[in-house]
Amino acid sequence: MLALPQVSQVAQTIQLAVAPVFMLAGLGAFLNVCAGRLARVIDRARKVEERVLASRGGEHDRLVAEIRVLDKRMSVVNGAIFLSVASGCSICLVVMLLFAAELFDAHLGTAIALIFIFAMLLQTAAFATFIQEIRLASRTIHIRNDVLYHQADEEDGA
After folding, report:
1. How far is CA 85 from the centre of its chain?
2. Cα-to-chain-centroid distance, residue 37
3. 98-132: per-residue pLDDT in tens?
4. Which of 12, 40, 118, 157 is 20 to 30 Å from 73 at the Cα level?
């Protein structure tokens, strides 16, 4: 017959599971930041997309270059989101295995440690991917010289 764990053992397992659960909260905040950046990139891409079809010459070339960068940024941010969600799923698995090990008196310490390491590697990759998106954005977002150095025409008779 299956021996049920004592309340103190369950409480100790809950204490062990608290750290991974806090990590999930941090992951949620990071995913919120990624989703916000993705939404802003998509909004900008939609505006540029409308203007690309109506533009000609140098303006057209500038808008096409911008939309290509925006497309790349969307892909990179989606990659960071994917990696973070995979990390979150791994952390959930760690928590479930902690409880399963306690409930069934199984020796899952090595598996739990390896899955936790895998979750950290995934999150590290997500952060690195996010840095790549930030670098892409900072290299391409600037105010054009024709706007920076624009001189307003003097009005007639002034």
Report:
1. 9
2. 9
3. 989 988 889 999 999 999 999 999 999 999 999 99
4. 118
